[in-house]
Specification:
heterodimer; A: 668 residues; alpha+beta; 4 domains; four-stranded antiparallel sheet; B: OB fold (Dihydrolipoamide Acetyltransferase, E2P); 2 domains; 7 strands
Chain lengths: 668, 154
Amino acid sequence: MIPEIGQFSLILAFSLSIILGTLPLLGAHQNNYLWMSLARPLSAGVFVFLGISIAILAYAFITDDFSVQFVAQHSNSLLPDRYKLTAVWGGHEGSFLLWTFMLSGWMLAVAIFTKSMPLEFVARVLGVLGFLISAYILFMLATSNPFDRIVPLPPADGADLNSALQDFGFIIHPPTLYMGYVGFSVVFAFAMAALLSGKMDAAWARWCRPWANVSWGILTLGIALGSWWAYYELGWGGWWAWDPVENPPLITWLFGTALIHSLAATEKRGVFKAWTILLAILAFAGSLLGTFITRSGLLTSVHAFASDPSRGFFILAILGVAVGGSLLLFAFRAPLMKSEFGFDLISREILLLANNVILVVAAASVFLGTLFPMVYQALTDDLISIGPPYFNAIFIPLMALLVVLLAIGPYCRWKRTSLSFLLQQLSKVALASVAIGIVLPLIITLQISIAATIAVTLAAWIVLSMLQDFLGKTSNKASRVQGLKALSLSYYGMQTAHFGMAVMLIGVALTSSYSSEKSVLLSAGQSVELGDYVFQFEGTAPVNGPNYVGDEASFLVSKSGKQLSTLKPQRRIYLATGTPSTEMAIDAGFLRDLFITLGEQKEGNSWSMTIYVKPFVRWVWLGAIFMALGSFLAAADKRYRRLRRRQTEPARAKVKSESLGGELQPSS
Amino acid sequence: MKPHRRKKLGIILFIAAGLSIAIGFTAFALKQNINMFYTPTQVAEGEVGAGQHFRIGGMVKMGTVVGDQGSLKVNFVTTDFVSDVPIQYEGILPDLFREGQGIVAEGEMDTAGVFQASRVLAKHDENFMSPEVKAALDASGASAENHSPMANNK
């Protein structure tokens, strides 16, 4: 009975979202106050009923209700409780419910935190979101209902959650990634509201920016978590594989990165308006594309859900209607968006434009490499795959170019900057960066690597120019501390995120250049050397988990005679499915990771294993954390809140916003 | 032409130039990095050029997996139930690699007619067959259900 309540609640959410997707939009069109004012309560209603629905699904998992097909397929009575709970997103149906629920959460947040915006605008934003949610719920009810029952004979026990998913990474990666993904639906809805009303001004960009920044930050974290999880769980020592399912989040991220930069120009200078809207549509399309690829069964991957063509068609239809419709609307309305073009060849606008061109080209090339095999197959019936070398060949030079410009951007003034000013500011920084880039890798590793030199040079270029900018910005103040206090949070946000880029760059380049690995066969008592480290194999012992059995090996790791740590990789067999699984052991460090994956037992009690030394690999994710932090700082800038407070006093609002509009011009 | 128009044109040309350079490089990189996929039958019929790096997919033939006890070398035979291709791989096989299951291997043929794999991918899910393996079986006219020993395993 209880799962039926979940189903009923889902249907109620659908009904409400249908009304939300139509009446407020019509109301905004016809200026019907009553219909527009329905948007907020309806959003809350959709959120509540989707919440009940997902809570009931979680309850079915916790109580081992195997009469629910989705539970029977993704859980088992032996599964630990934390995985029972998170198995909600362990398969297609439940993860889509989570996705939709999260979108309704964003929608509720929009309903709550937009008190200062005109009702007409809020009604349109919530209406577009309601429309999307109604399509998603319809998709669930029609093709992938998580509450479907197995009648009349439910299985005695469930098939168990895929063993690769029984891990901490599974608890946090999917929700974070989804949260970031669907956040771009909010930005998309803002863009649609602007197109529908035909009004898009600096105020629009100001409303939009915190949402875009927060979504982008969460998406950054979500991707980084996925990379970190793949690194320690999949056991091949990689943190990015250019897998067709990893790529859509990256495409979304690249469009999103372009978007948050172009929004800055739109807000401050009123330029690139139509372009900004287009980027919002593209970032959203990227998120839908990711859904389509993982859920249509087009691809083989760790992420692919079991295939069902009808689902693929349905998502393709949603993708077509949402993206096609919005692009059509864009085509009609974009000419109305008059952008200013008052800037010179060397100006912040041009640098932001270059940033956008590079990021969009990068996104397009990743898109091409991801979809090309599918298109090729459809046209010629031949199967092909595109390897990582393609992506590396394109992506790395583009990112290098991006980083060169990234450091110059903050020095440029809006409208016009003189070349001599830039040269005077940055020539010393450039020389120092090159010097550091050449010397530093040599001192640390005594090896020459062109990739490492370039990467360290670029990272130094970001960091040094940032330091100099801080010095320059605080030099006129009474004291440095005072100067630092006077800088805005959004400035700190930008610099933090850029610093994250430098950290990630170091991580990516050094771990790619200096990693080493060795596959060996060892018996107990034998040891192997890799780099400066000695790994001594002590033997294995049996282990028993709640739903698996296996062997645990023990290794003593030492460096120049000094013992560092004990590593205990495992090889498990999951009981319900009989699937083997390797649990690698990692000794994580700020400057290097050591890790071991256990293979299989051979004759004479010897084991096959692969040992890795990966310098600076943590910096990849550390960089992502800085980027996310930067975006949250920027979103928390008091500028956005101050405007809100002022605009809550309607009588003064008009005057104030106008004067603020003027104020925005000279501020950097 | 008005100054702001000229500027607009300049920007459009700037974007167009950037895009066309990018497309050129992309097409070149794409051409360099395509891995063709072949079925064991296609390999047996000699469709693969000498020294070509490619992917092969099929089922791991029952009873053919031989691990060298003194090293990490593994030999096995992949089949689409029409033709067989021997594969050699050095390293640790994926968790889900088993006899009678579908795999995709990447590498090249050596002079002795053995496929030297640099990478072996196994399917991730009990109920899911890689589209490539499925295509290989469909092409050979063999359906997975008739030949798959999965039913026996369970």
